[in-house]
Amino acid sequence: MGLAHAARLKGDDVVALAMVGDGGTSEGDFHEALNFAAVWRAPVVFLVQNNGFAISVPLAKQTAAPSLAHKAVGYGMPGRLVDGNDAAAVHEVLADAVRHARAGGGPTLVEAITYRVDAHTNADDATRYRGDAEVETWRGHDPIDLLEHELTARGLLDEETKQAARDAAETMAADLRARMNQDAPLDPMELFAHVYAEPTTQLREQRALLQAEIEAEQGGTH
Questions:
Q1: Mean pLDDT over each residue of the chain, to the nearest integer
Q2: Cα–Cα dist 170/177, whole Å
Q3: What is the pLDDT of residue 220?
Q4: How many Å apart are CA 112 and CA 91, to the nearest integer?
């Protein structure tokens, strides 16, 4: 919301997209952001990815509203509800919200209904709060499978293209994993950079102390 408001003040045609889960809508800063965005008519689109659970807390224990999109009414902005597993529908709704914001219409709250088929983390036992039948039902509504089926039916996608897309995705993921596993060299002195425009006396003393300790340790190692 702050980025969008700043862009509006500068006259930029930037539209910000803020993504949050259904659990995040129970946090205070979510409501503050929506309130200020509506008051200042900030060019921002709030996308709520509602997968039904905030880790293990179901949506019914987070809100009594008919939908999270209904909350938009209280802030004075449009609210849209969309099937989050329908890629084309999500694109259409978000594109419309972006056009609305860019034209000076202010923010939009979009709720995309989806589902988390796997556990929240590898430490989460999802069987404690949902059944296998529910999960299997949603597996049949996988967004990638639905999109592939639709494009194939329209003659816009064949097996060769699908395999090329899968290979490209795996290559990109492998490259990302490799780069994330590379530990970049760290300079402890960066701790003191960009803290103040003009370093304080205490900060300079702390920097000198750490520098001396590092040099002493390196001298001992040699």
A1: 94
A2: 10
A3: 65
A4: 11
Write the pLDDT tens digit of every residue in 5-43: 999 899 999 999 999 999 999 999 999 999 999 999 999
Amino acid of residue 60: A
Name 45's bridge partners.
Answer: 17, 108
Q: CA 82, CA 49: separation in Å to the nearest integer?
A: 10
Nearest to 6 by CA among 32, 35, 39, 42: 42
Residues belonging to the active site: 116, 120, 129
What is the pTM (predicted TM-score) of this model? 0.78
Residue 221 corresponds to which tokens in the numbers above?
Answer: 């190692």
Per-residue pLDDT reduced to its tens digit, 134-156: 999 999 999 999 999 999 999 99
> What is the Cβ-side half-sphere exposure of residue 183, based on CA atoms within 13 angstroms?
3
